[in-house]
Design brief:
425 residues, mainly alpha, 3 domains, 16 helices, 64% helix, globular, binds zinc ion
Length: 425
């Protein structure tokens, strides 16, 4: 049972409700470009996960089989008082490991390279919660190994891990202010807003997943203050809407310094040093300007309304494609969803470039639409989707491509006009 997949309709409905609230109150907490970028990163993370999740499952399974201190049969985790106590122990243990995983994710360079994705949004709303990394699979599993050494069953830890992630969804909102005693014990919207801040006072604070008590215990807690309103985002902004680059940006910074460092100690060590550390020789030749938060402006390229509408409509198609893939993976495994995933990833990339308002985005989107026909033919030949006639699918594919090309042609004039306008400035 995949709890996160089951929670997706709830995530979508909650975002729709918050968006409605935002529009009704005129607060402007949602910008379509930022929200679509965040949701694209969530879709990219979950679909790349189909191909990468095996790594952690294999290692955790091996640890459990060979190094578990206690044998805890799954039957122990029932609804009796003892069973409930065991569930709570597993959930608290997972939350404790999450605290250290998250803290190291901010304080060690190569782990920050993976986790930074979650912090690049310059807005803060429920869509930010789904903004997840696609490269976390490389190291994040390490932090949960102690729980397998204790001997908690894999099924139990997968459930408490999913529940931990689902809990964190609701705290990504600005519509809930303070919650009194709850702010003291649990991670709440107020203390998680602090975590997403780039203000000096709030940097590297409030790492908890469900319990904020860990931060109070280990000295990383900071309270939200009305006289220092949170400025959301990271200090080296992403400044584009490319979901692939969002995943690679910090690795690129590290690689830049590693290539130019003279000493081998620095070339290798830079990846595991505290975040922000740079080799002396590289920093001297390639200094980075200090960040001035008072000059911070959100990345917000001007995009014609017709393009915004086109991107929104296409993004709804992408959501349905991702939902279809999540059903198909159960039937056909990673091999069966590879081509649909490639189509989805191309769509998310193309929608990002369109939302940046660049003229070449038209060519990218046009090419994507034309490639869909042979890609769909290949995918359907390889793994015919169950319960659908191929004729019906072909009508859908051709209809979608034709309508999209017509709509894209309608946006062309607006993008060209906008480019001319920008060039005259
Ligand atoms: Zn974080
Ligand atoms: Zn967050």
């Amino acid at each position: 049972m995949d709890l996160i997949a089951l929670a997706v309709p709830f995530f979508i409905a909650s975002i729709a409700v918050e968006l409605g609230f935002d529009r009704a109150r005129g607060r402007g907490l949602y910008r379509s470009s930022d929200a679509i970028n965040s949701l694209s990163l969530g879709m990219l993370s979950s679909t790349t996960g189909y191909f990468t999740a095996l790594l952690k499952l294999l290692i955790w399974g091996l640890v459990l089989e060979n190094f578990a201190a206690f044998n805890m049969p799954i039957a122990w985790f029932d609804s009796s008082p003892g069973g409930i106590a065991l569930w709570i122990a597993a959930a608290v243990g997972w939350d404790f490991c999450y605290y250290w995983r998250h803290r190291c994710g901010h304080e060690i360079s190569v782990l920050w390279a993976a986790h930074a994705v979650h912090h690049q949004s310059e807005d803060y709303n429920l869509s930010t919660a789904l903004r997840q990394s696609s490269t976390g699979f490389l190291f994040e599993w390490i932090f949960y190994v102690p729980l397998f050494v204790v001997g908690f069953p894999l099924e139990v830890l997968l459930v408490v891990g999913a529940a931990n992630l689902i809990y964190q969804f609701w705290v990504h909102t600005q519509f809930v202010h303070r919650l009194g005693a709850l702010d003291y014990i649990f991670v709440t919207p107020s203390n998680h807003r602090v975590h997403h801040a780039q203000n000096e006072r709030y940097i590297d604070k409030n790492y908890g997943g469900i319990l904020i008590l860990w931060d109070r215990l280990f000295g990383t807690f900071e309270d939200e203050r009305d006289d220092d309103p949170v400025v959301f985002g990271v200090r080296k902004p992403l400044a584009n809407l490319n979901p692939f680059w969002a995943n690679l940006q910090v690795y690129d910074y590290l690689l830049f310094d590693a290539i130019r460092a003279r000493r081998w100690r620095d070339k290798l060590g830079i990846w595991f040093r505290p975040t922000g550390w740079r080799p002396d020789d590289v920093a001297a030749v390639h200094p980075k300007p200090a960040t001035d938060i008072t000059k911070f402006r959100k990345y917000d390229p001007a995009v014609p309304p017709s393009v915004k509408r086109y991107v929104l409509a296409q993004f709804i198609v992408a959501i349905f494609l991702a939902l279809g893939i999540s059903v198909l993976i159960v039937e056909s495994g990673p091999r069966g969803v590879l081509v649909p995933c490639l189509m989805l990833w191309a769509q998310l990339y193309s929608l990002g470039t369109l939302n940046e308002g660049r003229q070449e985005s038209l060519r990218v989107e046009c090419l994507r639409l034309l490639v869909i026909v042979p890609a769909a033919a290949f995918a359907m030949q390889l793994y015919p989707p169950p319960g659908v006639t191929l004729d019906g699918l072909w009508v859908a594919v051709f209809g979608y491509v034709t309508l999209s090309l017509l709509a894209l042609n309608g946006c062309r004039g607006d993008i060209v006009k906008k480019e001319l306008f920008v060039n005259k400035q």
